[in-house]
């Protein structure tokens, strides 16, 4: 394990140098990896594992849209594509990649196939950490491990195909076989991660739920909405409000942050912008700090889990989510965005 210094704090990191793909294949050569669920993470991980030379099968509900998607991706019924129970029976490693609510619904079915020595794999600490609410309590004689790619399954696949990768965090909750560590490291490399950061199931889920509700998804949209609405109220046109709120951010500035950090982005903007941004960040930090604190408490108390489970266990949860996404899409800001995107100069 490499020890890497992150801004003055040392952390354990597994690297491809110490755990190359050939070693991962050797560790898993006698295993059948059953990917249960073919939503977003399922396809990304299953296809990367398959292309990396592992023995992979997919388990998915028949007569579903995602079954058809699996067929279109080259999984063959009866050979590499099965219904969920059959895949669980065949797999020695069960990658439980149903939605977090779906994992609860299917748990009693899947549990039957978790015989001694198998490994149960998650990409989120949700089911195990909130076990009082999920009822997901694995038998003691199996390994329970986690690889959580730090991004969408779509990006995991795209970056793999581009010869790059997404990094992941990993955790071991239960090591019944003495092989949990080599299994989890091999799977992490196998799904296409370059580096594996050590964590626990609880830390993974607390930080992940905070991040997606916060700066990665929830907070960013909230801040965009607030600024856009203000500019419109003050008489700015939709295109101007959108450009100064979203377009410049996604097309120019955030790319500079990704490349070389915030100071690099600032340094490539005017000294006028730098003066103002360096001053105003303090106000924004102080204004949002209490909201982030409230969010973390809601995660750690299990309230966010409760809300998610309740909503996403309804039979029409997808239609409801789609309706809310359509409301976002149809807002003036994102309709303006649609037009602005179509006007991006192309060579
Ligand atoms: N979406 C992503 O890119 C990321 C997801 N994760 C985690 O990976 C896991 C899988 O997430 P996603 O791929 O987003 O899931 P998803 O919401 O796309 O669902 C995955 C599959 O579960 C099936 N499913 C849902 N409810 C079911 C039920 N009641 N019975 C049978 N099948 C059911 C769906 O048909 C789908 O094939 C979750 O633990 C999630 O938190 C982690 C990192 C990123
Ligand atoms: C893509 C990811 O890692 C998220 C945002 O946490 C998720 O999809 O749950
Ligand atoms: Mg995440
Ligand atoms: Mg998440």
Please characterize this protein's 3D structure.
The protein is of the alpha/beta class and 347 residues long. It folds into 2 domains: 2-199, Rossmann fold; 214-342, no CATH class. It contains 17 helices and 10 strands. The protein has a 10-stranded mixed β-sheet with strand order 1-2-10-9-8-7-6-3-4-5, sandwiched between helices. β4, α3 (65-72) and β5 (81-82) form a beta-alpha-beta unit. α10 packs across α14. The longest helix has 30 residues, at 271-300. The chain is globular, with a radius of gyration of 22 Å. The N and C termini lie far apart (46 Å). The model has no long low-confidence stretch (mean pLDDT 97). Residues 208, 212 line the site of one magnesium ion (MG). (2S)-2-hydroxy-2-methyl-3-oxobutanoic acid is lined by residues 151-152, 208, 212, 216. Mg(2+) 1 binds at residues 208, 212. One of its GO terms (biological process) is L-valine biosynthetic process. Pathway: Amino-acid biosynthesis; L-valine biosynthesis; L-valine from pyruvate: step 2/4; Amino-acid biosynthesis; L-isoleucine biosynthesis; L-isoleucine from 2-oxobutanoate: step 2/4. It comes from Thermoflexibacter ruber. GO terms for molecular function: isomerase activity; ketol-acid reductoisomerase activity; metal ion binding.
